């Protein structure tokens, strides 16, 4: 057991330390910092812009880079939150609550230093969990049949819609639309073309790149042009970053608790870093002896959520790699990338491509160390980056989207498709429909259909199979509980509104 | 104000879901639940979308919501710039296409000056050249002339 682990670590290190992988890891985390720091440029948009480039890379290298963007943006996200009171990424929204007050008190440097320390700590816990639990989980995953897979995906999809912000029913509707879009193309089992309406380009299905860039690139630009504004920020010197002994004393317990929360919710499908950061902030406020300090620049209130979201980022790779089931739209993109490279994540991949899994894991260590270096000695660069106005950025984003989509297959059809999805995505956003569940449904849909059809073959058409197999039954119960919980929340909210209205 | 966001969104889903279900039922083989044909799954998904759309639509009719503010200008210019890219890239190469995208899309808020457009388009072309031709060796030509 221990011997195996050491062998795997050696294999992972030798993969992660090749020159190419090191370079792309550095590119990934640096880009992640950039998009994390800049509000109005999303992680998903950046990952989808770089997606086409990854076709020209080894799958391991490609994931190392894309993953770097993902966890790098979590480090960067807190910078704008602290300095400008604008979250660079959704999961760093909580860091505004106490980070910005700290900046107003002239303690921005300390806040930046401690969030970096917390982020590194949280990420380390997440990576260690990944190293320890992935192998035992493979054994569990191998016992999964089609029924278990299907029920587990249902739990993930429902959790993603219910727990994320906004209306749960709109989230579920978007998941279903994503699943429907995933149907387009050849049916794997019968080879019959479905929903292509005579368009030859659609035989291989809708391009994941066009879909992601439309919904997260074009739509996001259309949405942000009028929203972005830049305010003045001061300078952050290295000396101002030194925390006092008091800061450290207050921070270490929250870091430990937050990495527990973050890892736990990272492993659960559908619950992302945003939820983890909100929950850990709430917990710290609850256990604190002086809850009144929160919201006025309490160091715990900055450190805890930033630790939690990084732990969650790393831990969310566990279900994606071990089970082949992505818990979030970002993970769906990484899973889609693997599938395009002809690798199906899951227990079989863990056995056949240990170099890929362990190489990616070890690259996380390298990437996180690089991020600490990027964040502490080089903080001045990021502060200056915050002053780039959005009206210079967005034409560049549109250019990268167009070139990115076109370069995948040299097809102008995909460029038009991207525009179409962009317009639909903008419309959906105006109507308050979230886009992330759609991408999740799009990637999971074909898998769900296959597993469902297999389960039905096994059970001779009886739906009982989902509740008679104990593991599957547990997932079904969990999904039902989540749905009931969200309905209860809606009901309670309605009642609150009604009782407030004077009638 | 009615909750028009839910009325429009729900209505759209109702139309999308029911037409998908009808298309699946009429043009694809359904099969049995035991041995499902290619049409069964999309038909079921279509029905669920239509149902969810109906629920959202009814909810919207019964509640009130904010005004929908559409940024027509950004929608128009960004769409035009993408169309221009698609039209220019194959016959003329990526440099003219990039110039067109920057020039047209930046009209969304009209804050980028002429010098800004030249500078931005120039540096993006440079980056494109470095990434695609030097770095990845993708056959994308910088300049072309239609024959």
Report on the architecture of this protein.
The complex is a heterodimer of chains A (503) and B (147). Chain A has 503 residues and is mainly α. Chain A is 75% helix and 1% strand. Chain A has 22 helices and 2 strands. Chain A has a two-stranded antiparallel ribbon with strand order 1-2. In chain A, helix 1 crosses helix 16 and helix 11 runs antiparallel to helix 12. Chain A is globular and about 65 Å long. Chain A starts with a helix and ends with a helix. With 147 residues, chain B is mostly helical. Chain B has 2 domains: 59 residues; 64 residues, no CATH class. Helix content of chain B is 69%, strand content 0%. In chain B, helix 4 packs antiparallel against helix 5. The longest helix of chain B is centred in the first third of the chain and has 24 residues. The mean pLDDT of chain B is 90. The chains are: A mainly alpha (503), B mainly alpha (147). At the A-B interface, helix 8, helix 9, helix 18, helix 19 and helix 20 of A face helix 1, helix 2, helix 3, helix 4 and helix 5 of B.
């Amino acid at each position: 057991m221990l011997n195996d682990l050491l062998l795997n670590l050696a294999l992972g290190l030798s993969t992660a330390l090749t020159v190419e992988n090191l370079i792309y890891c550095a590119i990934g985390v640096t880009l992640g910092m950039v998009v994390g720091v800049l509000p109005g440029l999303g992680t998903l948009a950046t990952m989808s812009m770089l997606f086409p480039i990854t076709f020209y890379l080894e799958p391991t290298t490609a994931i190392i880079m894309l993953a770097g963007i993902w966890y790098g943006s979590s480090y960067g996200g807190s910078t704008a939150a602290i300095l400008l009171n604008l979250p660079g990424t959704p999961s760093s929204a909580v860091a505004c609550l106490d980070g910005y007050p700290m900046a107003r008190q002239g303690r921005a440097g300390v806040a930046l230093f401690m969030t970096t320390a917390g982020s590194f700590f949280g990420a380390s816990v997440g990576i260690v969990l990944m190293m320890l639990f992935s192998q035992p989980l493979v054994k569990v995953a191998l016992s999964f049949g089609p029924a278990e897979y299907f029920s587990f995906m249902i739990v993930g999809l429902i959790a993603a819609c219910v727990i994320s912000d906004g209306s749960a029913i709109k989230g579920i509707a978007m998941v279903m639309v994503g699943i429907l879009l995933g149907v387009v193309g050849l049916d794997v089992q019968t080879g019959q073309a479905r929903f292509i309406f005579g368009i030859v380009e659609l035989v291989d299905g809708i391009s994941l790149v066009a879909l992601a860039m439309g919904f997260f690139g074009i739509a996001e630009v259309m949405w942000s042009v009028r929203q972005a504004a830049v305010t003045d920020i001061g300078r952050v010197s290295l000396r101002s970053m030194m925390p006092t002994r008091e800061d450290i004393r207050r921070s270490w317990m929250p870091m430990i608790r937050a990495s527990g929360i973050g890892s736990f919710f990272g492993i659960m499908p559908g619950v992302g870093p945003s939820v983890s950061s909100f929950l850990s902030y709430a917990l710290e406020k609850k256990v604190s002896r002086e809850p009144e300090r929160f919201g006025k620049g309490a160091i715990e209130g900055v450190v805890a959520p930033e630790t939690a979201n990084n732990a969650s980022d790393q831990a969310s790779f566990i279900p994606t790699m071990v089970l082949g089931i992505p818990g979030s739209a970002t993970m769906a993109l990484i899973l889609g990338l693997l599938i395009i490279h002809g690798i199906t994540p899951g227990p079989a991949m863990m056995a056949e491509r240990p170099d890929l899994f362990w190489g990616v894991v070890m690259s996380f260590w390298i990437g996180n160390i690089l991020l600490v270096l990027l964040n502490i000695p080089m903080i001045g660069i990021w502060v200056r980056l915050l002053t780039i106005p959005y009206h210079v950025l967005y034409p560049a984003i549109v250019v990268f989207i167009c070139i990115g989509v076109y370069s995948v297959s040299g097809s102008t059809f995909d460029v038009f498709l991207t525009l179409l999805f962009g317009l639909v995505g903008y419309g959906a956003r105006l109507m308050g429909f979230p886009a992330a569940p759609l991408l999740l449904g799009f990637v999971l849909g074909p898998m769900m259909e296959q597993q469902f059809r297999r389960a039905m073959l096994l059970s001779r058409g009886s739906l009982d199979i989902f509740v008679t197999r104990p593991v599957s039954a547990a997932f079904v119960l969990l999904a039902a509980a989540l749905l009931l919980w969200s309905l209860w929340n809606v009901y309670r909210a309605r009642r609150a509104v009604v009782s407030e209205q004077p009638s | 104000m009615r909750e028009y966001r839910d009325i429009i969104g729900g209505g759209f889903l109702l139309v999308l879901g029911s037409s998908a279900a009808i298309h699946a039922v009429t043009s694809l083989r359904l099969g049995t639940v035991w041995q499902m044909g290619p049409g069964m799954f999309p038909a079921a998904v279509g029905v669920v979308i239509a149902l969810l759309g109906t629920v959202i639509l009814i909810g919207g009719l019964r509640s009130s919501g904010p005004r929908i503010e559409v940024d027509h200008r950004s929608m128009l210019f960004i769409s035009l710039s993408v169309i221009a890219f698609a039209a220019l890239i194959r016959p003329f190469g990526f440099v003219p296409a990039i110039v067109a995208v920057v020039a047209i899309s930046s009209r969304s808020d009209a804050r980028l000056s002429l010098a800004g457009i030249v500078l931005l388009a120039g540096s993006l072309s440079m980056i494109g050249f470095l990434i695609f031709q030097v770095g990845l060796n993708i056959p994308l030509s910088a300049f072309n002339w239609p024959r």
